[in-house]
Design brief:
By secondary structure, the chain is an alpha+beta fold. The chain contains 3 helices and 7 strands, in the order E-H-H-E-E-E-E-E-E-H. It has helices at about 15-25, 25-35, 125-160; strands at about 5-10, 35-40, 45-50, 60-70, 75-85, 100-105, 110-120. A 7-stranded antiparallel β-sheet has the order 1-7-6-5-4-3-2. Strand 6 and strand 7 form a beta hairpin. Helix 1 packs across helix 2 and helix 2 crosses helix 3 (about 125-160). The longest helix has about 35 residues, at about 125-160. The relative contact order is 0.23.
């Protein structure tokens, strides 16, 4: 079966190490992704878990993944996804899903590339695919805003 993918790139005005840290630091993930909780065990074979919703004991959404590749400050790849939604149940397998983050240095900071693969071409996955497309675009804006706040904080603390 062929799969669809989504690819996005954003320029960040922070060093590559700081950009990579945004991807695996739970407090940062909660801020740029609007998650209620985030738990990350940052190493190959580790976990990456996020939840959303007002009730910690019964979240609306749960997303879990295994960390397949963890190569700071450049590459983070997530796979073996499991997803639970009280709102929109999944009617298709996520077994082929992978999310690949790649950070590259630029003259002004870092470029973050996100590639999410494994979306089935099955019509049952269409709505989820389109929601992910919109979601990643919004998330990149949020990551950029978070990075700019981080850069402003670092610059303010470095001022004489």
């Amino acid at each position: 079966m062929s799969h669809r993918k989504l690819t996005f790139t954003v320029e960040l005005n922070i060093p590559p190490e700081a950009a990579f840290s945004l991807l695996h630091t739970p407090s940062s993930i909660r801020q740029w992704w609007g998650a209620m909780r985030a738990v990350v065990w940052p190493e190959p074979g580790g976990i990456w878990v996020t939840t959303w919703g007002d009730d910690e004991n019964s979240p609306n959404f749960i997303s879990t993944a295994r960390i397949l590749v963890f190569e700071p400050p450049r590459i983070l790849t997530l796979g073996d996804f499991r997803y639970h939604s009280k709102v929109t149940p999944m009617n298709f397998s996520m077994s082929d899903f992978k999310t690949h983050f790649e950070v590259k240095p630029t003259t002004n900071g870092a470029e973050l590339k996100i590639e999410q693969t494994g979306f089935p071409r099955d019509p049952e996955a269409d709505e989820f695919y389109h929601r992910c497309d919109i979601g990643w675009k919004n998330t990149l804006t949020s990551i950029k805003i978070h990075a700019e706040k981080h850069a402003a904080t670092v610059n303010a603390s470095a001022a004489p």
